[in-house]
Amino acid sequence: MSGRAWRWGPRTLRGRLICGLVVLLALSCAAVGIAAVLTLRSYLTGQLDQQLAAAGGRFPASLEHGGPGEPDGDDAHADTRRQAPGTFGARLLGGTVTDAAVVRSGADTSVTLSAGDRAALARLAPNGRPHGLDLSALGDYRVVAVTGDDGDVLVTGLPLERIEAAARRLVIVEAVVFGVTLAGAGAAGAFWVRWSLRPLRRVAATAAAVTATPLASGAVELPDRVPDADTDPRTEVGQVGAALNLMLGHVEDALARRHRSEERLRRFAADASHELRTPVASIRGHAELALRRPEPVPPGVRRALDRIGAESARMGGMVDDLLLLARLDEGVPQASEPVDLTLLVLAAVEDARAAGPGHRWLLDLPESPVTVTGDGARLHQVLANLLANARSHTPPGTHVTVALRQDAAGGARLAVSDDGPGLPESLRTTAFERFTRGARIPAGGGGAGLGLAIVAAVTAAHGGTLTLTSRPGATTFTVTLPPGGERP
User: Fold this and answer.
1) Contact present, 315 and 272 (Cβ < 8 Å)
2) Domains in the chain, please, with CATH?
């Protein structure tokens, strides 16, 4: 509920501070304005009550006539001297209004009272206390009732119109003054808050600069730090800035340690792969040499030698793959020359058809040749590994389609699709990691789990992207290469 409420309010801290400042100032102005209006009304009403007390019942007493039979409103004897305009007077006898008049600028002081007015006047207690009364013919009045000398009740009233007019003028003045004040305070508050939040913006800029730094791999340096002026521990922003600098120091140290560990691992993999090539080749050569000897070889020994030759060949391929990955990780420059991807696809599919005659191999090629700039041998290895993956991990009879397209910008899009069983969901996110095996059906015995890792590394070295979509009956590996073989 709170998040929904804030959705309609300012989202930034600066906006919330300015909005809060203006709201608080508006509430303060409203409180001051209401208090001023109430105080003014109370003061003016008090003065009006004093005037009523000073007037006494002289004006209504002057309305007394010779007898009750004279008509209401006969103001021949009304004494309006020293009476303020609008002064109301009424005389009641036995709870009935016998006479009523109001002071006007002319000589006419007559007034016509409604039945409700007469009833309201009759209810007034003659105790000399002021009361508010709304007369239908005259408006709001402040009236006081006293007992006359003849046992009658004399009512004197003064209009509240001047008090209401003064209160309205005060409200208008307050609205104008407070409106200008709020506008000025809002502008000044916006400037002040913006100026006060400059250190926070600098801290945010430092954090944004760090987030723009690639941290995934390689040597990483974080030169950006919060300025010393914004790391004062006595301020809230300073505490945030100091904590951010400390965190960046820890992150940089951790990244440096990770990079040194990766470098040691790469050097070890490269050195080990390089050193293993000779003994593996030697083992394979001795096994082949033993099989070629003219002397009779027992069947069991021959089978053992065949296995030694096969496993040494497999190990040799694994060593070559590891050495290639180590070189790619080290950023060893690749060849950069025009490569006809169409010819590569034709050759690779022909090899795959020979290696997997039980599969159905299909081509979807454009009429014009698709050419990119890159390393032809490595790109051929990308395609060969994708086809070998489809052949090794799908059952015979699976349709494998190789589609090649060139976009308007000159880049290339290569897709290898099959209608096999698909990859399990648990392996889709790790399919391109090294030594990920058993992705689908190990029809061919499986490999070392380096084929797709090499595809990903070679594609990245060419500045391209590799994506995978898989579900039962539809698995597609898509390689996208930028125009001209642009490197990252």
Assistant:
1) no
2) 10-54+161-196 (no CATH), 56-159 (3.30.450), 213-332 (1.10.287.130), 337-485 (3.30.565.10)
Token pair 């040691």: residue: 264
Please list the pLDDT of the chain residue by residue as tens digits (488 residues).
444 444 566 677 777 888 888 888 889 999 999 999 999 999 998 998 888 888 777 888 887 654 343 444 444 456 667 788 888 888 898 888 888 888 887 667 788 888 888 998 888 888 888 988 888 888 899 999 988 877 888 998 899 888 899 999 999 998 999 999 888 888 888 888 888 778 877 877 777 777 777 666 656 666 677 777 777 788 777 888 788 778 877 877 877 777 777 666 666 666 666 566 667 677 767 677 777 777 776 777 777 777 777 777 767 666 666 666 666 666 655 667 888 888 988 988 998 898 888 899 999 888 888 888 888 888 888 888 889 888 888 889 999 999 998 887 778 888 999 998 888 877 777 777 766 665 444 444 455 567 788 888 888 888 888 888 888 888 999 999 887 645 44
CB neighbours of 296 closer than 8 A, spacing ≥ 6?
none
Residue type, 17: L
Per residue in 87-97, is it b (16+ CB within 10 Å) or e — as a string?
bbbbbbeeeeb
- CB contact at 8 A, 94 and 122: no
- Give me the torsion for CA of 242, 243, 246, 250, rounded to 10°: -160
Kindly state the tokens that stand for 476. 């597609």
How deeply is 308 buried, as exposed, middle or buried, from its count of CB atoms within 10 A (0-12, 13-18, 19+)?
A: middle
Q: What angle do CA 131, 136, 139 make, to 5 degrees?
A: 60
Find where tokens 């945010």 sit. 204
